[in-house]
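hey so i finally got around to running the thing on that chain from the lab meeting. sorry it took forever, my laptop kept dying and i had to restart like 3 times. anyway pasting the input first so we r on the same page abt which one it is
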Amino acid sequence: MKILFVFTGGTIGSSTKNGIISPGGNVPDKLIDNLVRETRMDFDYDVSVPEVILSENSSGDFIREVVSCVSGAIDSYDGIIVMHGTDTIQYTAAALSYSLGLCPVPVCLVSANRPADCPDSNAPGNFCAALSFIQKKRGQGVFVPYQNREGEVLVHRASRLLPHSPYSHELYSLGGAYGVYLAGEFSLSESYFERDDTCPPLPFGSLCRTAGILRVAPYPGMIYPEIPEGVSAVLHGSYHSGTIGVSSPEAAAFFEKARERGVAVYLTGVAVGDIYGSSLEFSRFHIRVLPQIAPDAAYMKLWMCLSSGLCPDEYLGMSLGGDILFPRGR
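ok and heres what got predicted. didnt touch it at all, straight out
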């Protein structure tokens, strides 16, 4: 087995000095050597370091560089592990999912709640799960193994990662995890379901530093922002029930301004099933409701479509990299 480790920094690739967490110069080789030694697995590996950052500083340039590194090496290895920070892992994970689809070579993103040299870091457990997952060929495409406080390592479909809750290191995914490692043994979740890719992987080479997407979240008494020049689309979040406020004059003015300027408004977070009465206003405001897809993945899919000149409406409803939550039987 031959593995490529793509090192990008983040908490897992950092050390703490005087209370400050930051990536170190010699961290990649030392970190990977130590983690490999802990696995007691026999395999060959190479290390690539496209860029080292704390992941909160991620941009389109960084994501493009990481995806380019992985996609360029995918045919030369039995698996690829991307060492990544937790703050923006959802975005890079989605970009890799959309660039590779359900590729036969498994790719895992590995992150950590604490620097790997901390006694309470979950880096070793996440790393070992990723290696075992690749070695035993547990799935195709892109995945994120991550150990929450309960102790087991959940293996997430990378395109379904949900945003972190405030003040929490826990990581969850839309519809539940793909599978779980418990006592070193992997079990596929019985409730997990995904469809094959229904469209080809998306181009990533045109990703620029910023996305040209205005992202807004609802709250009571909301003041809608102006739509700056250069914005191509709006991604609107919803309350947990898939609703947004539609009765205020501020909302009406915002959606009318978007329509006048030809800026498409997409709404994420709306589940399949019965709807609330306020949702009947979506069509009046020309709001395009997305299928059940993780919000950060929806943002990344929209960004990749817009940057490569593809029509988002044609691709956002197509399954790619296991991203859309389709209930069984639908």
